[in-house]
């Protein structure tokens, strides 16, 4: 049974960098791609991007200039870094396997000074 | 990139069938068979119901079914149950390998 465990701070200051990590247990990062999705309070889902086990990435064009996704197969982890955050980046952030057959627990990230 | 278009709300009575539409363009929904559907209960992570237009992930009830015609995809829920009351989202990949979500549809079971 694959499980995804998210970690990272729940509070980030404006203009700083949001960093989250998703640790995968019970399975390999290989032969899959790994996604990040976010959801502002009371609003819909927004796709952030995905990373393949090879390290290849696809990013949401609206976030691309600030976004970096990375993967460390030896640690069974993949990570998100979003720079220069503003209040508009406040949301619950989810990691997921491929199309979403497995999800992390979600992390509420608030951007505030 | 614009979000896919879903009705804001739909409703139905227990035992009935309902259909939620998801309209995009020929560059996303209509161009590729990479449409997925998700169910989300309040405070919970989304759950994948359908992928690749009409495929079921392991463990998902076949009361949920997906289809596509042109630039519009549809999710049909048959034999509506109280626990189906939730928000539903469609998604589709574009030609540039980016993913769009619909705005979400709130399903009320009367």
Concise synopsis of the structure shown:
The complex is a heterodimer of chains A (113) and B (110). Chain A is mostly beta strands and 113 residues long.
Using brief descriptors, characterize the structure shown.
heterodimer; A: 113 residues; mainly beta; seven-stranded mixed beta sheet; four-stranded antiparallel beta sheet; globular; B: 110 residues; three-stranded antiparallel beta sheet
Could you characterize what this model shows?
The complex is a heterodimer of chains A (113) and B (110). Chain A is 0% helix and 51% strand. Chain A has strands at residues 3-7, 11-12, 18-25, 33-39, 46-52, 57-59, 67-72, 77-82, 91-97, 102-103, 107-111. At the A-B interface, strand 5 of A face strand 3 and strand 8 of B.
Strand fraction of chain B: 35-45%
- Count of alpha/pi helices of chain B: 0
What is the typical, i.e. mean, pLDDT of chain B? 97
What sequence of helices (H) and strands (E) makes up the elements of chain B? EEEEEEEEE
Please tell me how large the radius of gyration of chain B is: 13 Å
